[in-house]
Design a protein that fits this description.
By secondary structure, this protein is α/β, with parallel strands linked by helices. Among the domains are: 88 residues, Elongation Factor Tu (Ef-tu), domain 3 (Beta Barrel), CATH 2.40.30; 111 residues, 3-Layer(aba) Sandwich (Rossmann fold), CATH 3.40.50.80. Helix content is 31%, strand content 31%. The protein is built from 9 helices and 16 strands. Strands 6-1-2-5-4-3-7 form a 7-stranded antiparallel β-sheet, with helices on both faces. Strands 11-10-9-8-12-13-16 form a 7-stranded mixed β-sheet, sandwiched between helices. It is globular, with a radius of gyration of 19 Å.
Amino acid sequence: MYPILNKEKLNAGVGRMEILAPLAARHARAGQFVILRADERGERIPLTIAASDKERGTVTVIYQIVGGATMALDRLNAGECVADLTGPLGKPSAVEGLGRVAVVGGGVGCAIALPIVRALHEQGSFVAAIAGFRTAELVILEAEFSALADEFYLTTDDGTRGERGNVCMPLSRLLAAGEKFDAVFTIGPLPMMKFVAQTTKPYALRTVASMNPIMIDGTGMCGCCRLTVGGARRFACVDGPEFDAHLIDFDEAIARAKTYRAFEAAARERHCNLYRQTEKRGGTL
């Protein structure tokens, strides 16, 4: 069992938890993830390590409520425990030696972008961070990005906060103005990362995408997180989660991701029904 030390809501559908996990905290690096279960009956959830504190022995995860498993996680509070936590898993972000970097995050993917920005900042790199959301109500981590990035650009699709438009607009503007970057990291919805890769490709600019598809075992055995990268089969949990964005078959990844939506909706409905029934009986899940 892993105690939850702190929990907070970042917006209506996104939460942040600090969990006591000394071994994971000791070895965690930017770009890696953990797999946890909210309870002994729960599904395994892969979540990127948003922050870690070796002295406190904690890892912080940020999660979006999309199905039954994340709903169960969100019902836990500080003082309670998650049943299992394994990690860190995956390869760390390759940030060493990079002098000037752009980091582009979209939606809850900004939770994955933030530790990369932090690692770059701590090693003295120049960081231009771009974060995009659909609307102001969904904006998360704005203060954290502002504090760590040398330049920070915020966009919303409807213009209710920051610049109106998508993340490719400030990125395109920077590149067209002659801004030179050693690399671009992009994390967010698959269509967004696809368009970021298309934006940087004419500049032959190294672009890294963080792929976080469905994962089960985290060791490459189940095959759920398979991707096609450069025409070869890769597994996000052991070969990634970061890959050359110009080589990823995004259309295949987008099609695969859509196949799970019905399952997520069904799991969410089952969890809601179970919770309602349990409340009527005056018990707990």
